[in-house]
Each structure stands twice: as C-alpha cells, then as structure tokens.
Amino acid sequence: MTFDQLGLSSALLRAIEKKGYSEPSPIQAKAIPAVLSGKDVMAAAQTGTGKTAAFTLPILQRLNASAPIKPHRIRALILTPTRELAAQVAQSVSNYGLHMPLKSAVVFGGVKINPQIAQLRRGVDILIATPGRLLDLHGQGELDFGELEILVLDEADRMLDMGFIHDIRQILKLLPAERQNLLFSATFAAEIRELTKKFLQDPIEVEVASRNATADKVEQWVYPVDKKRKGALLRELVEEKCWTQVLVFSRTKHGANRLAQQLVKAGIEATAIHGNKSQGARTRALEDFKSGSLRVLVATDIAARGLDIAQLPQVVNFDLPNVAQDYVHRIGRTGRAGASGKAYSLVSADEIKQLNDIEQLIQRHLPREYIDGFEPEHEVPASAPLRKPRQPGRRPPKHSGGGSNAGKHTAKGRAGEGHKRPRRRRPRAGSGNRA
C-alpha cells in the first residue's frame, strides 16, 4: 500500500515525499482512513510505529478540506503528557502541513507563558498542549474552543499514569459537545477503556500489535551485576563497545543526576534530563544528544516518554522500572520505524521481582550474560516460569513452584541453581556495537 491509496491530498503527499517516506506503517494504514471517516477512533500501537503521523496527516487533511467559519481559530486540540512529546507532535504537524495555509502552535510548561499568549492571539488552527499549561492559558482567558472540531489524546496511558485524569476531565468540560475524538495509546488497558466510555461515541478500534509487544527488532539482554557496581559496568560497556549514542534510564531524578556526574568524571560526555530540569536545559541536552556531541543521555521515564531519536542504536536500563509496562516504552526508544536496536538491562539481586514482572508481561525470558570482572556476589535467581495471561473471570492458579524446566541453563546464558554461570568474553578493542 502507498500513501496516495489512503486518500490523502497532493499537498500532504508532497510533504510525505520530502520526509522520505513511501509506504505507510501498519498503524498509519489502518488509522488514517478511520480518522478521515470523521468518526471517533481509539488506536493502540507499540511505540516507534509512526502513530504521530497516523493522526496528524488525516487531521490536516480534514481541516484543510473544509473552510473554517472563522479563520485561525482553534479547530483541533492535541493533548500530550510531556513537553518533549508535545514538541515532537508540533514538529510533525509543521512538517506535514508545509503546503497548507493552516497555522499551528505548541504550549507547555517550563517556559515563559507570554510568547505563547502572543502566538495564540495571532491565530491558531491546531493547538498542541500539555494539560497543565492549557488550563493556565484558559484561566487567563486566552483560549476559545468554540470552533473546535477535533480532540486528540496522545499517549493516553501515560496521561493516566502521570495523574492527569482530573485535568482531562476539566478540559473536556470546556469543549463543544459536537466534535471528533481520537485516542491513541500503547495499550487498551482496562483504565483506558474506562476513560473512553466518558467521551468516545461508538469508536472505531484500531490495534496493530499484541497488547504488550516489545519492538520486534530490538535485541534484549540482562547483565546481572551487584548494585554498587552498576556505574562501573556502564562505563565499561560505553568504552569497550565504543558507544557514541546511548540512552540510559534511571528510576529517579537524583539517580539520573548522580550517574551523569559519574560518567562526566570518567571522561564520558553525559548529562541528565528529568522533570526538575528547565525546558531549555532539556531541549539543549536532546539537541546535543541527537547531534552526537553527547554520548550518554540519562533520563527518567517521564522525561524520556515521547523522545523520537532517529536510528538510536541502543538503550540501557540502569535501573529496572517498578511498572513492567514502562520497560516496553523504554526499549521502544530504539528499533523505531523498522530499524534494529539493542536493549541492555543491568539487574541486581534486589530487582528480581521487577525482572519477573517484565518477563511475564512480554511472555519471554530475557537472555542473561555475565561480563568478566563484574560477576555479582549476590546471585540473581533464575527466571520464574512464564504464566499465560489469566482469562477474565477465571481465578488465578495457585503457585506451585518452579516447573520441571524452570531455571535450566540455556545457550542464551540463563543459569539456574547447580549450573555453572556462562562467562562472557570481554570484547576486543574496536569491536564496535557487536553484542
């Protein structure tokens, strides 16, 4: 299938061609016709599959095809959970709307509000916003939603995780009752379906990936290591593998700052981004990382959600997330849009529960490798047997302990009790990104 078969205008096709795309991704092929129909849509797709274009393209098409009652009034509102994602969506709208007379703007916190007010007063057709700043602007009388035609909730699952449900309810009360509603999420979790009941009308459902699938082309490993030696192991990996661009996930803001400082002291260009950093600092860090002047970007989950870095070769989980679903989002920063990628998790003995939760979620055992000189003093127990997801209405089975195959040593490097741990040969200098 090609983009012109989806019914997109010549202006959009020219913009798509300029971006170098020829064929729509699965989510685009399914969601674009659904949005063009004018009906409400709820769509789920794993990260990195092109879902931003799946709603920006048809929104631009619909708005450009019909003359507005009043030019440059807000006709489409796109809500995102983070500043970085808002900026990314705004860039997508700008890129694809290049040959259209529509105006767009992006507003979020962490920067001065007056320039945003000035832009809104000049007129905007498409507004991309984070919930908090949107409500601030409305409270100051700077927003009029009387002409609104389309509402988008992007990364709806993350909005709920970040506690935006109250803000979303407030915003919904401000909007016209007659409008098209679009909800995009990584999953159709129960909380998402509950949310859709409140504002979607007989929506078209679009889902192109299994509920908790990780990116197919992302290779994944677990490196068991003592907690106190994680920093040294990360430095070893960066240097020995000659990594020039790696996104590292930390569970906390303080941990992200500390790790970045340790890497800088070791002579590795690094910085941290998280919610306490100013928007200017976060933007500069991301630009330096994309340009290659920064080797390591240490981020928390909230700051990294929505980061779109083309051909990012690898990510590292310095800490495993407390919520297993966040692992899926983290490793989805690499292996985007059909590219390959690698994900490494540094796991200490106190993280075995998180590791088991992740493996149960993705229904897959992650291979383990031991790095010479970093074998843990405290053993990371073997993976628990995978359990099939419980069917609704059934009682969970009683835990019966490890099965007959639990914890067996495999060629992939998993080790159970009574088996010698496989040792991994230290990569030779110049081995590059080889695993």
Structural features, described:
With 435 residues, this protein is of the alpha/beta class. The protein folds into 2 domains: 205 residues, Rossmann fold; 145 residues, Rossmann fold, CATH 3.40.50. The chain has 15 helices and 13 strands. The strands form 2 sheets. A 7-stranded parallel sheet has the order 3-4-2-5-6-1-7, with helices on both faces. Strands 8-13-12-9-11-10 form a 6-stranded parallel sheet, with helices on both faces. Helix 2 runs parallel beside helix 3. The two termini are 35 Å apart. The C terminus is likely disordered. GO terms for molecular function: helicase activity. Its EC number is 3.6.4.13. This is ATP-dependent RNA helicase RhlE. It catalyses: ATP + H2O = ADP + phosphate + H(+). Belongs to the DEAD box helicase family. RhlE subfamily.
What topology does this entry show?
Layout: H1 10-19, H2 26-36, E1 41-44, H3 51-65, E2 76-79, H4 83-96, E3 104-107, H5 114-121, E4 126-129, H6 131-139, E5 150-153, H7 156-161, H8 165-174, E6 180-185, H9 190-199, E7 204-207, E8 218-224, H10 230-240, E9 246-249, H11 253-265, E10 270-273, H12 279-291, E11 296-299, H13 301-304, E12 314-317, H14 324-331, E13 341-347, H15 352-362
Parallel strand pairs: 1-6, 1-7, 2-4, 2-5, 3-4, 5-6, 8-13, 9-11, 9-12, 10-11, 12-13
Helix pairs in contact: 2-3, 3-4, 6-8, 14-15
